[in-house]
Specification:
CATH topology of the largest domain: Tachylectin-2, Chain A
Number of helices: 3
Low-confidence stretches: 14-23
Mean pLDDT: 95
Shape: globular
CATH architecture of the largest domain: 5 Propeller
Radius of gyration: 26 Å
Strand content: over 45%
CATH superfamily of the largest domain: Glycosyl hydrolase domain, family 43
Helix content: under 10%
Number of strands: 39
Distance between the termini: 64 Å
Bound molecules: beta-D-fructofuranose
Length: about 550
C-alpha cells in the first residue's frame, strides 16, 4: 500500500518535472509565421535544432526590452540534422526572449506550433563539438562546427599565426557572417579561439584584413548591411578581442559590390595603402591613420578575366615586382571561383600591369582554391598565403554536416619567368616539410606523395570501391591534369566531376601531392604549378599506381 502510494507520488513528481521543463521552452505562437520563446539563462547555451533543407527563420534576441542580437537559423521542422549553440550566458542571469519569424512554404496556418524545433530546443551547459565527420581534414584548418568561407585578417605577431575566417556559427551553410578565429604556431595545428567580430547595426561582417600597428592590431572589414561599407576595429590584446571604432563606416561608395579591404604599410610613400574590390575593378586608396582614406586609382578595366565579380584582393611586392591578387567568382578556368593575379608595378598611387590586357594568369588550376590572401607581417619577408578550399558552385552542398569547408595548406609565393612573362610561384610552406613523417608503403588518407618524374607520368590513386583520381603529367604538351570524375561522391553537384588541367611552364622534375581525407593538392616542387581539388571517396584511397615516375609516400604528422 505504502509502496503503491510512493510509486504514484513519484510518477506525479516525474510528470510535474517533465511538464515543468517542457513549459520552460514552450513557444507563444503569435501568428502563422511568428513565435516567441522565453528562456531562463540557467545555462551557457540555448541549443538550436537545425534542418538544412528548411528556409531561414529570422531570430531576434531580446534582453531587457532591447534587441541584443539578430540571426538567421534554419530551424528543424520535422527532423533535426544538428544543433548549434546560441551563447546566452553572456546576458548574465537575465531572461532572454527569442522572437522568431518563419519564412517559406512550410509555415501554413496552424503548423508552426508542431515544428520539431520546439521539442528539441534546450538550455545546456555544454555543446559537443567533438568531430563527427569522416571527411574532416586532419592537417588543414577547419572550423569545429558551422560554415566557413574566406580566410580573413591573417597576420603574424610574436610567434603566432592568426587566421580569422568568414564564419556562420548558427549553421553549416553560408549565413550570419561573423569573424571566427584560430591561432597556430606552426601553420599546421590550429587552436580554435572565441569569435572575434560579430555582426552589428551596420551589417554582418564580410571579408577583410588585419594589420599590426605598433602593439595594436587593426582589423578592416566590410560591413554588409543595406549597402557594403568598410569599418575598422582595434585590438589591444593581440587580436583576441576587438573594439569597433565609433566612427564606422570609414569608407563608403555607391558601387553595390564594394568589399574585402586589404591595407598595408607602404614605406615608399610613408603611408598606408588599401586595395578593395569594387565591381570588376580594384580600387586603391591611401591613408595616414587607417581611418580617413583618399581614393588614388582603380585597376582592372579590360585586364584579365571578367567572367564574374572581383573579390578579396591583395597587393604585395615579391622580388622587386608588385603582384595583385584578384579572386574572381564565377569565371574560374573550370567554372566557378578561382584566383587570378597580375604582375606589374605600384608607386603607392597606381598599379600598372606589365602584361598585355588580355593575358590571364591563374595561381592554382584546381577547382577548389579561392579567396587567397596573405598573412600580414610574416617573418623573413615571406609571402605566406592560404586559400579557401572550395568553390561557390557547390560549397554549400558538399557532403559534410557538422562543419563545411577547410582551408588549403599554407603556401609561400615567389616569382619565376617563362619567356617574356613573370608568374607567381606557389610552393607548400616549409612548415609542411616539418610535418613529414615516416615513409609508408601505401597511401593513407593523410599523406604526402613525392613523385620523381623523368618524362610523362600517370599516377592513379584508387580505393576498394573502384573510385579513383588520375593525375597525368604530359611532358610534350607541358600540362598536368587531375581527373576526379570517378573520385567518389559527386552526387551533390553536376559541377563537381571534372578534369582540371594546368600549364607546367617547363618540365616537372618532382611533384608533391598532399592528401587529406577530402582534398588533393598537387604542386610542382619548383613552384611552377599548383592544383587544388576536393574529393569525397567513400573509403580512403589506399592503392597507388605510377607509370613513368617513382613515388615515395610519407605519413603526415598532425
Ligand atoms: C568571397 C566573398 C567576399 C565576401 C565574403 C562574404 O568568397 O563573396 O567577397 O566578403 O565572401 O562571405
Amino acid at each position: 500500500m505504502l509502496f503503491a502510494t510512493m510509486n504514484r507520488l513519484l510518477t506525479i513528481l516525474a510528470a510535474v518535472l517533465v511538464a515543468f521543463s517542457a513549459t520552460a521552452l514552450v513557444p507563444q505562437i503569435l501568428s502563422d509565421n511568428h513565435a516567441m520563446l522565453r528562456v531562463d539563462a540557467t545555462g551557457k547555451y540555448l541549443l538550436l535544432p537545425v534542418q538544412e533543407k528548411e528556409e531561414n527563420a529570422y531570430v531576434r534576441v531580446i534582453v531587457d526590452n532591447e534587441q541584443v542580437q539578430t540571426l538567421n537559423v534554419r530551424f528543424a521542422v520535422d527532423k533535426v540534422d544538428y544543433y548549434v549553440p546560441l551563447d546566452i550566458q553572456r546576458f548574465g542571469n537575465k531572461k532572454v526572449l527569442v522572437d522568431i519569424s518563419f519564412h517559406g512554404d512550410r509555415r501554413t496556418t496552424g503548423v508552426v506550433k508542431d515544428f520539431v524545433c520546439w521539442r528539441e530546443m534546450r538550455v545546456s551547459n555544454t555543446f559537443d563539438d567533438s568531430n563527427r565527420e569522416r571527411f574532416r581534414p586532419a592537417y588543414h584548418h577547419t572550423p569545429a562546427y558551422g560554415w566557413m568561407n574566406d580566410p580573413n585578417g591573417m597576420f603574424y605577431k610574436d610567434g603566432v599565426w592568426h587566421l580569422y575566417y568568414q564564419f556562420n556559427p548558427y549553421g553549416s551553410q553560408w549565413e550570419n557572417m561573423t569573424w571566427g578565429h584560430s591561432t597556430s604556431t606552426d601553420l599546421i595545428h590550429w587552436t580554435p579561439q572565441p569569435i572575434a567580430i560579430e555582426p552589428d547595426a551596420l551589417g554582418t561582417i564580410f571579408s577583410g584584413s588585419c594589420v599590426t600597428n605598433g602593439n595594436d592590431v587593426v582589423a578592416i572589414y566590410t560591413s554588409a548591411g543595406q549597402n557594403q561599407t568598410q569599418s575598422i576595429a582595434i585590438s589591444h590584446d593581440n587580436g583576441m578581442t576587438f573594439d569597433k571604432y565609433e566612427g564606422n563606416p570609414v569608407l563608403t561608395s555607391d558601387v553595390p559590390d564594394f568589399r574585402d579591404p586589404n591595407p598595408f604599410w607602404n614605406s615608399d610613400i610613408n603611408a598606408w595603402n588599401l586595395i578593395l574590390a569594387a565591381g570588376q575593378e580594384m580600387n586603391i586608396y591611401s591613408s595616414k591613420d587607417l581611418k580617413s582614406w583618399k581614393y588614388e586609382s582603380s585597376f582592372g578595366k579590360e585586364y584579365g578575366n571578367h567572367g564574374g565579380v572581383w573579390e578579396c584582393p591583395d597587393l604585395m611586392k615579391i622580388d622587386g615586382k608588385w603582384v595583385l591578387l584578384c579572386n574572381i567568382n564565377p569565371g574560374g578556368p573550370f567554372g566557378g571561383s578561382a584566383t587570378q593575379y597580375f604582375v606589374g608595378d605600384f608607386d603607392g598611387h597606381k598599379f600598372t600591369c606589365e602584361s598585355m590586357p588580355k593575358v590571364t594568369k591563374w595561381m592554382d588550376y584546381g577547382k577548389d582554391h579561392y579567396a587567397t590572401v596573405s598573412f600580414y607581417n610574416a617573418p623573413a619577408g615571406r609571402h605566406v598565403v592560404i586559400a579557401w578550399m572550395s568553390n561557390w558552385q557547390y560549397a554549400n552542398q558538399v557532403p559534410t554536416r557538422q562543419f563545411r569547408s577547410a582551408n588549403s595548406i599554407p603556401r609561400d609565393l615567389g616569382l619565376f619567368t617563362d619567356g617574356e612573362e613573370s608568374y607567381v610561384s606557389v610552393k607548400p610552406s616549409p612548415e609542411m616539410l616539418a610535418a613529414r613523417g615516416v615513409k609508408v608503403k601505401k597511401p593513407t588518407e593523410t599523406c604526402e606523395i613525392v613523385v620523381d618524374v623523368k618524362n610523362s607520368m600517370e599516377l592513379t590513386l584508387s580505393n576498394a570501391n573502384g573510385e579513383q583520381v588520375v593525375m597525368t603529367y604530359d611532358a610534350a604538351k607541358q600540362t598536368f591534369a587531375m581527373d576526379r570524375t570517378a573520385s567518389g561522391d559527386a552526387s551533390f553537384s553536376e559541377a563537381f566531376p571534372v578534369v582540371t588541367v594546368a600549364p607546367t611552364h617547363g618540365a616537372i622534375k618532382q611533384l608533391r601531392i598532399f592528401v587529406d581525407r577530402c582534398s588533393i593538392e598537387a604542386f610542382d616542387a619548383d613552384g611552377k604549378m599548383a592544383m587544388t581539388n576536393l574529393v569525397f571517396p567513400t573509403t580512403p584511397y589506399t592503392n597507388i599506381k605510377v607509370k613513368g615516375g617513382k613515388a615515395t609516400i610519407y605519413q603526415i604528422n598532425y
